[in-house]
Amino acid sequence: MPLSPSETRALLAQINHFPKRALGQNFLVDGNIVRKSLELADVRPGDAVVEIGPGLGTLTRALLQTGATVWAVERDARLAQHLRDTVVKEFPETFHLIEGDALDFPLAGYAPTDPANAARLKIVANLPYAISTPWMDAVISGPLPERLVLMLQKEAADRYAAPSGSKTFGAISIFLQSAYEVAPGHPVAATCFHPRPEVDSCLMNLHRRATPFIFPRHTRDLIREIFQHRRKQIGALLRGRLPDDGQRWLQAAAIDPRARAEQIPVGSWQKLPEASA
User: Fold this and answer.
1) Torsions phi, psi of 91, nearest 5?
2) Which of 7, 68, 169, 263 has its C-alpha lying 20 to 30 A from 176's C-alpha?
3) Is 277 a residue whose pLDDT tops 60?
4) Which residues belong to CATH 1.10.8 in the chain?
5) CATH assignment of 217-269, among 1.10.287, 1.10.10, 1.20.120, 1.10.8
6) Which residues, 6+ apart, have CB-to-CB distance to 211 below 8 Å?
7) Which residues contact 27 (CB under 8 A, 6 or more apart)?
8) Is the bond preceding residue 112 a cis peptide, omega within 30 degrees?
């Protein structure tokens, strides 16, 4: 069971740690959300699971107690030392901890020699808002984990799941939805954390598609560049960036050259000709 708010405060005082807003340090204090995370991720004995930001180890212990092997990355030096003093000693064979930045270690050092094992990987992550999009971009560049259960600010989750035609639809929406299906998740109130954040969160539940689509790197760069100019027409944005200025793609996908990028559905973006370096 996770620590209560008072127990969390006491433990933080014991290790002389003050939660850092800049690192998005809001510690989970609700056992129902811990159980829901494991349920959505369908964690089973023998599973390989990556955790981002294990903090005090509340979710970490629950994952390990299922019989899974956990790879985790923790940026905060004091929390990493706490984990080495406690969880690493409790689960020396099945808990692997890296002290570092999740953007440098998006899979927490998990590096199987067999690609089939990478495909069965699951990720359970409590993502700080500031790194959620670049971390996600790194993960969905492949090889793709089987399932992701992500604790996110609701604003970020809405952006990732946004449909075309909405103002929040963007490059990361296209990349994510091309690789993963967005399954029902779970709302998480601010009261589930200590300290209490100013916004509500949610557990985003992502299942790898039967036939996922991964965009080539240069095409991803082009799509990101296009969405930096959301108010411009797609025909003008493609000029000089693709062979024949992208006219054949526009015609084949029945896209009006005057359309804005956010109006173009995910499936049409997947047929965009590969951009050159």
Assistant:
1) -130, 65
2) 68
3) no
4) 217-269
5) 1.10.8
6) none
7) 3, 8, 12, 19, 55, 56, 58, 193, 194
8) no
Q: Are 68 and 43 in contact (CB under 8 A)?
A: yes
pLDDT single digits (tens) 112-169: 766 667 668 999 988 888 899 999 999 998 889 999 999 999 999 999 999 999 999 9
At residue 272, φ and ψ (nearest 5 deg) are: -60, 130
User: Do strands 95-99 and 69-74 pair parallel, antiparallel, or not at all (unpaired)?
Assistant: parallel
Question: How far out from the chain centre does Cα 94 lie?
Answer: 23
Across-strand partners of 149?
A: 124, 205
Are 126 and 55 contacting, i.e. CB atoms less than 8 angstroms apart? yes
Residue recorded with tokens 């108010």 = 231
One-letter identity of residue 209: R
CB 56 within 8 A of CB 47: no
Closest CA to 73 of 111, 42, 120: 111
User: What was the pLDDT predicted at 268?
Assistant: 97
* Residue positions counted in the chain: 277
Distance CA 247, CA 110 (A): 43
Task: Name residue 5's beta-bridge partners.
Answer: none
Pick the CATH number of 5-208 from 1.10.3720.10, 3.40.50.1100, 3.40.50.980, 3.40.50.150: 3.40.50.150
Q: What is the location of CATH 3.40.50.150 in the chain?
A: 5-208
Residue written as token pair 């689960």: 91
* Whole-model pTM over 0.85: yes
